[in-house]
Amino acid sequence: MLAVPGMAPLLGISLLARTAITADVMALTLYVVLGLDLSYAAAGGVAAAMTAGVALGGPLLGRVIDRRGLRVVVLATVALQAVFWLSVPFLAYGFLLGAALAAGLLMVPAQAVTRQAIAAMTTADQRRAAFALESVQGELSYIVGPAVVILCAAKASSGVVAWGVGAAIVAGGAGIALLNPPVRATHEAEAAAAARPGRRQWLGARMIAVLAMAFGTTMLLSGVDLAIVATLEEAGQVSWAAAVVAVLGLASVAGGLIYGALPRPLPTWLLLGLLGLVTIPAGIAQDWPWLCVAIVGTGLLTAPTLSTVADAVSQLAPASVRGEATGLQSSAQSAGFALGAPLAGAAIDLSTPAGGFVAAGLAALAATLAGGMLSRAPSPGTVSAVRPASGAGVPVEGEAAR
C-alpha cells in the first residue's frame, strides 16, 4: 500500500496531525487542572465542549470539502487552530469553554480527509488493506499522543504543552494542505460534477446501519478504557493501567496488519459482534498481568472493525458527498467515545469493575443487532458510489451492506 503514489506522504503527515489531535483533550485537561488550578470536573467540561464541537463539525466540514475542495477547508481550520492554541494560556475558564467548542467545530479534519483520499487513491481490491493501514495509524496516534503530553507536562508548564500540541496540529494540517491529496478519483470527479444527490438518496438504512456500528465500536472502546482503570484501582495496581492500555493498542495494531493481509474481507457486523463477545469475559481478570492477557482479543479485533466501517462508508457514499459521509462517520465515533465511558461508569457503580466490560460488550452487541437489522431493510432510494469503468468500484448494495 505504501507503494501507491502519494500514499506514504499522506499517511506520514496525517499521523502527525492525528497524534496531536488525539492529545488535545489531555493537553486541555492538564491546563485546566494544573494551569488554572481548577477541578477535574471543570476540565471535563472543556473536554466535553471540544468533543461536542468535533462531533457537530465533522459533517459540516465534510460538506464544505465536497463543495469547495480540501485545501480551502484545511487552511481555514489550520488558521483557527493556530489562534485557539496560542490563546489558551491567556483565557479565563469561561472563555476557554466557548473557545474549545469553536475549536472543535473547526478542528483540522485529518482523519476524514485521510479516509477520503484513501478511497480516491486506491482501487476496490486495494481499499480494504488501505483502510486497515489507516486504522493501524489511528491506533498508533492513540498510543503515542496522550502519553507524550503527559510526559511533557512533567517537564514543562501546561501552557507550553498546549502550545506544543497546537503547533503539531497546525504543522500536520499545513502539511495536508500542501500535499492536497485527491478526494475523488478522476472518473468520480467527472461524475460528481454532473449532480449532487440529495441526502435522502444516500443516507438510507444501510448507511445508518454502518454509522450505528461505528457508534457501537467506539462506545465499547471508551467503556473498556474506563473499566481497565476501575479494575486496576480496585486491585491497588492503577499505576499499571498505562501498560494494559499499551498492550491493547499494540494488539490492535497487530490485528489491523493481519486483517489487511487476509485474502477476503469479513462483514462489519461479524467483527463487531465478535469484539463485543470477547470483551465481556475480560472482567474476570483481577490483576494487571491477567488483564493484559484478557484484553488481547479486544485489541486484535479493534482495528479490523474500524477499518471495515471506513471501507463500508466509502463504498456506500457517492463520490460527490463522500466528505459529508466521512464526517458523519467521525461524528458517530465521537459520540460513541463520549457516551461509552458514562455507560460503563454507571455499570461499575452499580456492580463491580467487571460490569464495565460487560456494559461495553453489550453496547457493541446491541449496535451489531441494530446494524444487522437496518442493513437488511429495503432502501430503494439509496445511491451507491459511482462504479468506475475498469470495474474496480464498490460492491452492489448487498455486498456494500457490510
Describe the structure.
One of its GO terms (molecular function) is transmembrane transporter activity. It comes from Phytohabitans houttuyneae. Keywords: Membrane, Transmembrane, Transmembrane helix. The chain has about 400 residues and is an all-alpha fold. It folds into 2 domains: about 180 residues, Growth Hormone, Chain: A (Up-down Bundle); about 200 residues, Growth Hormone, Chain: A (Up-down Bundle), CATH 1.20.1250.20. About 80% of the residues lie in helices and about 0% in strands. It is built from 18 helices and no strands. Helix 3 runs parallel beside helix 5 and helix 7 packs across helix 15. The longest helix is centred in the middle third of the chain and has 30 residues. The protein starts with 6 loop residues before the first helix and ends with a helix.
Give the biggest beta sheet.
none
Give the CATH level 1 class of the largest domain.
Answer: Mainly Alpha
Which regions are unreliable across 5 or more consecutive residues at pLDDT < 50?
380-402
Radius of gyration: 20 Å
What is the number of strand segments? 0
Spell out the blueprint of helices and strands.
Layout: H1 7-22, H2 24-35, H3 40-68, H4 70-87, H5 93-105, H6 110-121, H7 124-153, H8 158-179, H9 186-194, H10 199-202, H11 205-234, H12 241-261, H13 268-279, H14 288-294, H15 296-316, H16 322-350, H17 353-375, H18 397-400
Organism: Phytohabitans houttuyneae
Protein name: MFS transporter
Keywords: Membrane, Transmembrane, Transmembrane helix
Short account of what is shown:
With 402 residues, the chain is an all-alpha fold. The protein folds into two domains: 1-185, Up-down Bundle (Growth Hormone, Chain: A), CATH 1.20.1250; 198-385 and 393-402, Growth Hormone, Chain: A, CATH 1.20.1250. The chain is built from 18 helices and no strands.
